[in-house]
Write a structure and sequence with these properties.
Blueprint lengths: L2 H12 L26 E5 L4 H8 L10 E2 L1 E2 L7 E2 L7 E2 L2 E2 L1 E3 L6 E4 L6 E2 L1 E2 L8 E6 L8 H10 L3 E2 L5 E10 L4 E12 L3 E12 L4 E6 L1
Length: 213
């Protein structure tokens, strides 16, 4: 899976020391405190993912991770909720569904706008990417939202084996910001465990962005 990615990522590691020069001007600097409600730890694995599930139940198995999740009206008679994210519901209903055609995973258009997947592995320090908008900010608390987006790989943190992320800090300035640190694992001729870090921000209108650390 994603064999082309490994060589690029190794190259990125080699130049990591110079990545601070690429910090985006529009990426805000925010003070964060340690996560006050205890640790939030998210484990990602190739065996429990929307990609793997779609390949098992879809009509046309995906060749790779989706780059977007379209926002559509849910047709319960012809669509099925995704089991990978079934534990996350808004107003008592699942959020991620297999499309009616079975060829992709989509989101409920009453909950999210279209989501553009953010590959957190590739984000340079300070580089910011817009993910989409939560249309019902009051319906899901920020930590739970972050866990959902990580579980759905809308914030993509692995490319081969899996990843482990820990929420290490939070801020409530202009919405909510959660700071995550962790690592992702892949194999070449040997096992590789590589650090990963980013901040997820949700503004007061529900707009979601991710910034590399």
């Amino acid at each position: 899976m994603r064999a082309w990615w490994i060589g690029l990522w190794i190259g990125m590691l080699a130049c990591k020391g110079s990545s601070r020069l690429d910090k985006a001007d529009d990426a805000p600097t925010q003070e964060v405190s340690e996560a006050p409600d205890g640790p939030l730890i998210v484990h990602r694995t190739s065996h429990t993912s929307l990609l793997d599930e779609q390949r098992q139940v879809g009509t046309a198995p995906l060749g790779d991770f989706q780059t977007t999740f379209r926002a559509v009206a849910v047709d319960r008679a012809n669509m099925r909720p995704m089991e990978t994210t079934a534990g996350f519901q808004v107003s008592g209903a699942p959020v991620f569904w297999l499309s009616a055609a079975g060829d992709a995973v989509v989101v409920d258009h009453t909950v999210f706008t279209e989501l553009s997947v953010v590959d957190a592995i590739r984000l340079r320090e300070g580089q910011r990417k817009e993910l989409g908008q939560l249309l019902q900010p009051e319906a899901i608390e920020p930590r739970r939202l972050a866990e959902l987006l990580l579980t759905a790989d809308a914030i993509l943190t692995w490319g081969h084996i899996g990843s482990e992320l820990t929420l290490v800090g939070e801020s409530n300035d202009d919405g909510w910001t959660g700071v995550f640190d962790g690592s992702h694992t892949y194999f070449t001729n040997e096992k590789n465990v590589v650090p990963i870090g980013f901040a997820m921000h949700v503004d007061t209108e529900g707009r979601i962005s991710v910034t590399g650390r």
